[in-house]
Design goal:
Number of domains: 2
Distance between the termini: 36 Å
Low-confidence stretches: 1-5
Helix content: 40-55%
CATH topology of the largest domain: Beta-Lactamase
Order of helices and strands: HHHHEEHHEEHHEEEH
Strand content: 15-25%
Length: 230
Amino acid sequence: MSNESRNLATSLFKGLDLLGVLSVRSEEGAGITELVDDMGLPRTSVLRMLDSLIHYGLVGRDSERRYRVTDKFREWRMEDEQERLIAEHRPLLRRIADEVGEMAALGRLQGRRIRHLHWEEPDCRVRVMPPGGRSFEIERMAMGKLALSQRPDLVPAKSSPVTLAEIEEAGRLGYAWNRGESEEGIVAWGTWLGEPSPLALMLAITWPEFRYSDAALGKAKSILKEWRSA
């Protein structure tokens, strides 16, 4: 880990992660048990962060002890960011699905997990199961390795030397692979859609292993290059 990484304010990162988790639960709110599970932190730590955010006015707690972001937090956003991001990137995902013939997904780091905001599927007889409602270990995902390259404090202590090397490589190259690590028979390639950062969007393209080819990946990269230069 670099000296720069050691100097990062990881407690601030965790507070921002918590706000991110609550922002997507703004309608139903979240109880402490749900938040502890999402954040992967001790209950006392999550409660301390919640009390601080309540004191700052960004989070509120109702009579049923469910937490939600406040209007003050929404004023920071000014719009439904998720809907805007989906609308902005859906044409790119659709084009990849149509021209490459594989599923393309949009995601970002949320807490200690990758949240899949949207995905587009090709019209194929053999298809990859969409990621919605499913949970994978972050270090086994292509997008997860990218995210961990920017958040070394979230790298699981149990990670193997091979995984650690792949995370380091993802930080250096700007893309990462999942070769059957999250699901047997599945290949995924992920990259950033902006400058690498814990808040940046990521794209993942997923193939059944038997259908993957370097030519297909090359086609996807060409589409991305054209999109970035537009």
